[in-house]
Amino acid sequence: MIRLRAFVIGALLIPPDAWWVIRCEDVAQGPYSTTISLFANAVFILALLVVLNAALRRVAPRQALSQAELLIAYVMVSIGASLAGLDLISVVMQVMAHPYRFATPENRWMALFGRYLPDWLIVSDPAALKSYYEGHSSIWSQGVLTVWLKPSLYWTGFIAVLLLVMMCINTLVRSQWIDRERLTFPIIQLPLAATEPEGRLWRNKLMWIGFAIAGGIDLVNGLALYYPSIPTIGVKHFDIGYLVTAKPWSAMGWTPVSFYPFVIGLGFLLPADLSFSCWFFYIFWKLQMVAAGGMAWDAPRFPYIIQQCFGGYLAVLATLLWTARGYLKQVWHCILGRRSELDDSTEAMTYRTAAIGAVTGTALLIAFMWRMGLSPVVGVAAFVLYFAISTAIARMRAELGPPVHDLHLSGPDLVITQTVGTQNLSARDLTVLDLFFAFNRAYRGHPMPIGIESMKMAQECRASQRRFLAAIMLAGALGSIAAIWVYLGIAYRHGASTFNQGLGFGFETYRRLEAWLTSPTPPDAAANAATGIGFAFALFLGLMRLRFTGWPFHPIGYAISGNWSMNLVWLPLAIAWLAKVGILKFGGMRMYRTAIPFFLGLILGQMVVGSAWSLYGLVMDQPAYSFWGA
Q1: Rounded to two decimals, what is the model's pTM?
Q2: Degrees, nearest 5: CA angle 311-317-323
Q3: Which of 257, 281, 348, 520 could in theory staple to 423 by disulfide, Cβ–Cβ 3.0 to 4.6 A?
């Protein structure tokens, strides 16, 4: 049973959570909760709700929240946090505010692309921008809301349509992934276990041992920040690359190691072949860099790791479409009203509605960009690529649950300009493509996998798919508005230029556009070839997994291991892999299942105590220990 109050609780939690996320990820220096697949802030809030609900159950059992209601609130907080996080609203805000504030005669931004910037999406008022960047003002000052209202509403509508299309795609693939393939969804194991009605996780001694170890480490490290006489416990990443100075090994560059307990916990939930592939292919990429250094191949970006990884993502999607071709045929029959093996009566929406929503929503997004000045052909290509990447990420999370997935600098904006060359695109097309950076800088806190995971949680607790869909769409609308409002409020009070992440994304966006327009380039043949190589190699890995039982190399591990975030987690994943393989070999499945609560405790302990330190710092207005400094 899901009552209205679950939606009310979720809605009330979204604004303060947006304030928490923005203060940590944009203003301060972490923790960067939304750069992890399982958001630490959402886990903290869920744990708090579970504790309060247990107390309520003792005094008024009928008023206690059900598991489905707790998960509704959790999903709404997660969606709101994904929008407020480092890779969406914070980039959108800088894209909106940056060009007119930092245009100078030297960079010639206004001459290069000023006439192509849509005035209904970009803020140009000098007085409003001055107060925004310098602070000591208020969002309620005269004229401020008027300046920001129009572009904020347009961006909010754009994000809402993006989210709708994602949920339509999720609906179309849900039955295949959840009912037919029975994917494991590792990321949701902790929320499901934490909200389970009997509370078995909370009575498990191994869970509390894991909680005490991980939470104790963060407790000590947090106290050490205020009392330097207390020694710290080094679990955060630190670089060892500087120790290697001899060529060609020095070509490895930055090579951090870490011992994050929560990553070890998440890694234990992963299939062993994925956790192995993540750290194996991370070393594989480093060896490519060493080989390139040894051969003196000094071409820019060689060996094109980002492009190879992007090809791997496309291969994951291609494999998905091929293996699901029979299912998709039945979905198509449902859409056309023909006889089908599938029953969509219990889905979040009918397949016909989902298909119409996906097509109509994508058309609206293309029209939105066309109004900005993007040619329709480029718009179609851009959004096909965007939703292809999004679907691949959702699939990776559903099947294998990697703790990080960023795909930095691999969105449609860069793929298209790399493929066809900036010299073959108009200045207007390049300007609008550059604005894709607002929602394509990275794919860490992506909302689409949260959507498919919510469908799995709804099924596990026998709740209505449509109620969970309603919660997600409500959270999307409220989350966008709350994030923009909170960001503006903090900026006008303290000054966006004082934020730790207040200027960098804006300069990344418009300096890139400046380079495109001042130094046009032809198609990047080497980068395109690297994408093709990555695609072919990932397909090869997938084929070998089908042909040979026990094949240890997973194409998803190949695709995600070359991205930036893997630098921070490769060693904890190796530790988790070793622990899982050892337990399975010497204790079997029984010991493995017995050990799971301990590793869930590692996740819960670090996320709860680490999040508590960040809240303490914000409330006391002083620096606090950041357990995850991505």
Answers
A1: 0.94
A2: 135
A3: 520
